[in-house]
Amino acid sequence: MNAIEAIALLGGAALAAFGLRKRVWLVALLSLAAIGTAIWLIAAADVDSTGAVLELTFRLSALARMASLVVLAILALLVLDVWLGEPAYNFFPVALAVGGSAVAVLTLGTPLAIYGALIVALLIPVGSFTFQVHRNRSVEAAVRHFAFVALGGSLGIASLALAASLPKDQPATTFVLLAVILVVAFALKLAAIPFHTHAALLVSEAPAASLALYFGVLVPTTFIAFAEILVLSGLLPAIVQVQRVQDLLLGIGLLSAIGGALLATGALELRRLVVYGVISNLGAALVGIATLSGPGIVGAVAIMLVSGACATQQLLAAGTLERRAAGGRPSARTAPLAALAFVVGGAGMIGIPPLVGFPGRFFVELIAYAFSGGIGTALVVAALLLLIAQLRAGIALFGDVGGSPIRIEPRPVAGLVGALIFAALLLGGVIPDSFLKPIAAFADEFLKAINPL
Question: Which of 86, 78, 76, 79 has its CA nearest to residue 322?
Answer without folding.
Answer: 86
